[in-house]
Amino acid sequence: MTRRSGCRLRVDIWDYSEDHAFAEYSEFSIGDEASLYHLYIDGYSGTAGDSMTYHNNVPFSTIDRDNDSHARRCTIDTHGPSGGWWFKNCYRARLNAEWGRSSANWHNNVWYGWKGSSTALKATLMKIRCD
């Protein structure tokens, strides 16, 4: 779906105090299997701060397929169990962690550009629109 030109991404995030912020990217696509589902993202605007551009041109990693550039496996070793994500070294945004709020910051869904790494996100939405 995102191989077409003109795709955008909007991310809405909420913390546990019900504060809300958003990030929009005017350019968004995900590569095919041969590219390991590389992320292409650019053109940030919004109120959340830009936490996704850090992940630009990074392949998707899962628990059973480590494609990140970190010496350890970002999906498991450094931050506890996590869903798949475009880990670089390791992340500035992570929206596929275990749901809930943990005193161990690395177990939370986070968006560094908004309130830093110690603020757990209560809810997140990722929305794609292609013209």
From TrEMBL:
Pfam families: Fibrinogen_C. PROSITE patterns: FIBRINOGEN_C_2. Transmembrane segments: none annotated. Gene3D superfamilies: Gamma Fibrinogen, chain A, domain 1 (3.90.215.10). Residues 1-131 form the Fibrinogen C-terminal domain. It comes from the Eukaryota. This is Fibrinogen C-terminal domain-containing protein. The lineage of its organism: Eukaryota, Metazoa, Chordata, Tunicata, Ascidiacea.
